[in-house]
Design a protein that fits this description.
mainly beta; globular; disordered N terminus; Immunoglobulin-like; Ig_E-set; 125 residues; two-stranded antiparallel ribbon; four-stranded antiparallel sheet; molybdenum ion binding
Amino acid sequence: FGTFLDDNQRLAPFESMPQNHMQPAYRIPDTPGACVAAGTSPKHTIPINRMNTKSIVVEPEGNATLKSGAAVEIMGIAFSGGYSIKDVLVSMDNGKTWAAAELGKDKGRYSWAQWKFTWKPTKQD
């Protein structure tokens, strides 16, 4: 959502402009959690009006070499569009199983939550 100054010198929402890029793009599924099944397209969408919860791994870096059997601390941040982060779940087997990461101090709405997870890779990983 944004504004522009029209001919009458009053603020008007971008949605009033038919050429607005928000009409065909920058849209999310109109479903609870803004999710759809993998490989499908949403039936209905709405303009982005909130940020979905996201998480980023910051350590180890993607090119790091990990030793089999040696514990490695995976660290990251999680953030949302105005909600506190209650938990971060980590899967090391492509979603077959999940384990809770340890969360840092809750700093309230709109703040990033640090998390860490200790993992021992095996030769199969």
